[in-house]
From TrEMBL:
Protein name per Swiss-Prot or TrEMBL: Immunoglobulin A1 protease autotransporter
Lineage: Eukaryota, Fungi, Dikarya, Ascomycota, Pezizomycotina
InterPro entries xrefs: 6-hairpin_glycosidase_sf, 6hp_glycosidase-like_sf, Bac_rhamnosid_C, PGAP4
Domain called Alpha-L-rhamnosidase C-terminal: residue spans: 173-239
Keyword Transmembrane: yes
Organism whose genome encodes this protein: Talaromyces islandicus (Penicillium islandicum)
A Pfam family that the UniProt record links to this protein: Bac_rhamnosid_C
UniProt keyword terms in alphabetical order: Hydrolase, Membrane, Protease, Signal, Transmembrane, Transmembrane helix
Length: 715
């Protein structure tokens, strides 16, 4: 038998049974009421049996007992609603089915879809009665089948009045539960509505009204004073404040997840107010998230010298530098051992550890004896440790001992120098110049002597054919893979580098265009990378705060409009907290973190300003003659500042390779600088490097096609 017929029989029976039962009980005919209840129970068991129409796998009634492929929507909706209800047959079953299981929004959406559209339709009577529409959707006078009477036939039947009863009984939620209205129930359902009001008068004046706003709702009812009722209130995620007739009430305790809160009340006219505080919750959640974020920032950004979370107590501790120092000294010790054991005569050792005749980069170290710590071996070892044979062949390493008496230097004359360094030199100048250098050294005039030594190093590298010249100080530690990343950076700035062959020409400058940049910086310090007036966000900080608050307000208001169901949580007070507290707090945190931490530099970046210092600069050889001429003319000064002045006058760009490829470890300056100035010359994030990741990155770069092509002549 089809489900519709079964449900019809079940409905007629249960409708009649339930009605008879209720009326018999009200008339004190309890035996007859019990008989009808038994019939109803037996029929309910039969309808719900899997042997008939119930499909337990799907959780719905199938169309027939034999056919399990069809699950009709209307009959299943009636099944939700029929359980013990007395209603007219063929009503708005689906609407009431949704409401019976408290799917309020689905019911309201269905009402709007099925009834709401024709309230203001110009082709109808602007009422809730459908007139003049044919089943094909067309609108015309109904002549055929109506004896050609040119009038509107009514297609409105009892089912169309269902929403009215549903809105009163479920949405407003007021319905009598006993004869004469002596007892009643008030169970509102909100959905996306802001208010609802209705009344029934068969047994007297029974009216109820509720209104929902952003952070609370009120429920009012007016019933006979000698009646009693039950309020069935929706669950609350947190116990709200409750007011009964304007006075605080502490007796009502809400369920916090599912289920209704039932409250017995007396008749008369009363008002219940339930006040929620999403704004306070929003504030507390914002404070909690901000506290977690703040703590994360303390852990993550303590190395940034311009961050509010900067921690100077540990920022100068060696971490990755310890690893590189150990690897560097192991490299030097290994070659000291080779030299002492006499194995240095092996041809293969010399071949691997020395440059080719036509290198890509000439690297010059200027080293002097220091009063206490000596960093020279660590600098050389970390530069060479980890280079593969191709990289080493492409690098010409020159060391210049810049003491007028080089024997003062602890590394002068040591055999391992010839093992790993391509050229070791000291001053080779006229006697008059040498005496001037002795005077500068004795008087500790490091400004003049430093300029001379820098020019001397540039000129020594110009004696090679290398297209790029790097000048390095002797108190640094290089990161693993520094040379491969440097070559990558040079290829970024000079797109002809990858395609240069070593046999093209001896005069490199004659075949390569003069680059519009002066140097590629391999070291810089975050000390000079801070928020400044050059940054749009910092310069217009007030505007940024207003802008993000405005964006937050706009998004919140649009969300309320597009998604009405969000209004119960996205209240005006909540929006106030978000826009005046949460958003400004996190915007401020953005600036507190520090510019370099928020916008870290990567790869080749422009650094026409804020670059410091002269620990590691790589120049294209085309600009070296004019640079040395300028330095010789100026004669004395801070070398790095003089180089910057030359670049500005020559209108040449300056670039840096980020992150820094080496660390400045000389906390005691060879130029007698104050300790605070030396500490500021520190790559703060260098110590956070991961040795294994850098090694893997180094190997990956060497396998890239353009790098393989560049180094193929250095196999």
């Amino acid at each position: 038998m089809k489900l519709g017929i079964i449900l019809l029989l079940a409905f007629v029976a249960t409708d009649h049974v339930s009605g008879e039962t209720s009326h018999r009980k009200w008339l004190d005919q309890l035996s007859l009421a019990a008989s009808w209840e038994g019939i109803a129970a037996a029929l309910k068991v039969a309808v719900n049996s899997p042997d008939n129409n119930w499909d337990s796998n799907t959780g719905a009634f199938k169309n027939t007992a034999a056919d399990g492929s069809i699950f009709p929507e209307d009959e299943n909706s009636m099944a939700l609603y029929f359980d013990g209800n007395i209603v007219p047959y063929v009503e708005s079953y689906e609407v009431k089915g949704h409401l019976a299981i408290r799917e309020t929004q689905r019911a309201l959406d269905l009402m709007r879809l099925s009834w709401g559209w024709y309230l203001n339709n110009p082709y109808v009577t602007e009422s809730t009665i459908i007139e003049g529409y044919y089943e094909d959707g067309s609108f015309k006078y109904a002549n055929d089948g109506y004896d050609n009477v040119g009038s509107y036939p009514s297609h409105s039947h009892g089912w169309s009045s269902g929403p009215m009863d549903a809105l009163i009984s479920y949405v407003v939620g007021l319905r009598p539960t006993a004869p004469g209205g002596a007892q009643w129930a008030l169970e509102p359902q909100f959905g996306d509505l802001k208010w609802a009001e209705g009344f029934t008068t068969p047994l007297g004046k029974y009216s109820a009204r509720w209104a929902l706003n952003t952070s609370s709702y009120t429920l009012e009812y007016d019933v006979p004073a000698n009646s009693h009722g039950i309020l069935m209130l929706p669950p609350q995620s947190k116990q709200p404040k409750v007011f009964w007739n304007g006075k605080p009430d502490t007796q009502i305790s809400f369920k916090n997840s599912t289920g209704l809160t039932e409250v017995s009340v007396s008749g008369g006219k009363h008002r219940l107010s339930v006040v929620r505080s999403p704004a306070i919750k929003t504030l507390l959640v914002s404070v909690f998230i901000y506290a977690l974020t703040f703590q994360y920032c303390r852990i993550r950004f303590w190395r940034d010298p311009h961050s509010a979370f900067f921690d100077i107590s540990n920022v100068y501790d060696w971490q990755y530098s310890l690893t590189r120092e150990h690897e560097a000294h192991h490299f030097i010790s290994h070659h000291k051992t080779i030299e002492q054991s006499g194995e240095s005569n092996r041809p293969q050792s010399k071949e691997i550890l020395k440059s080719s005749d036509e290198p890509l980069v000439c690297a010059a170290f200027v080293t002097v004896k220091r009063d206490l710590d000596d960093y020279f071996e660590g600098s050389i070892g970390s530069m060479l440790e980890g280079l593969d044979s191709r990289e080493r062949h492409a690098l010409y390493l020159k060391v210049i001992f810049a003491n007028t008496n080089p024997k003062k230097h602890p590394s002068w004359g040591q055999p391992w120098l010839d093992e790993v360094i391509d050229s070791v030199a000291t001053y080779d100048v006229p006697e008059s110049t040498f005496k001037e250098l002795e005077r500068l050294e004795a008087e500790e005039d490091f400004r003049a002597k430093g300029v001379f030594d820098y020019v001397n190093a540039l000129n020594r590298c110009m004696e090679t054919s290398a297209p790029f010249i790097g000048i390095f100080e002797d108190d640094v530690l290089f990161a693993e893979g520094w040379f491969a990343r440097t070559l990558n950076g040079l290829m970024t700035l000079d797109d002809t580098l990858e395609f240069r062959g070593r046999n093209e020409s001896d005069d490199i400058a004659s075949v390569v265009p003069t680059p519009p940049w002066l140097y590629l910086r391999l070291f810089y310090t975050e000390t000079f990378l801070q928020w400044s007036e050059d940054d749009f966000a910092y310069r217009n900080m007030n505007m940024i705060f207003v802008l993000v608050m405005g964006i937050g307000l706009t998004i919140s208001m649009l969300t309320r409009k597009i998604f009405p169901q969000s209004r119960s949580t996205l209240t005006y007070s909540t929006i106030t907290v978000l826009c005046l507290v949460t958003i400004p707090a996190f915007t401020g945190l953005y600036f507190m973190i520090g510019k370099y931490s928020v916008h870290p530099l990567r790869d080749v970046v422009s650094m026409d300003s804020n670059g410091c210092c002269s620990q590691a600069l790589v120049f294209p050889r085309q600009h070296v003659p004019s640079l040395t001429q300028y330095l010789e003319q100026e004669h004395s000064g801070q070398t790095d500042l003089m180089i910057e002045d030359f670049a500005k006058k020559a209108e040449l760009r300056r670039f840096a390779l980020a992150p820094p490829q080496l660390q400045h470890i000389g906390l005691r300056s060879s130029r007698k600088m104050a300790e605070i100035d030396v500490q500021s010359t520190w790559a703060f994030w260098f110590e956070a490097n991961d040795a294994q990741k850098l090694k893997a990155e180094h190997e990956r770069i060497l396998e890239e096609e353009k790098m393989v092509h560049l180094l193929e002549d250095f196999e």
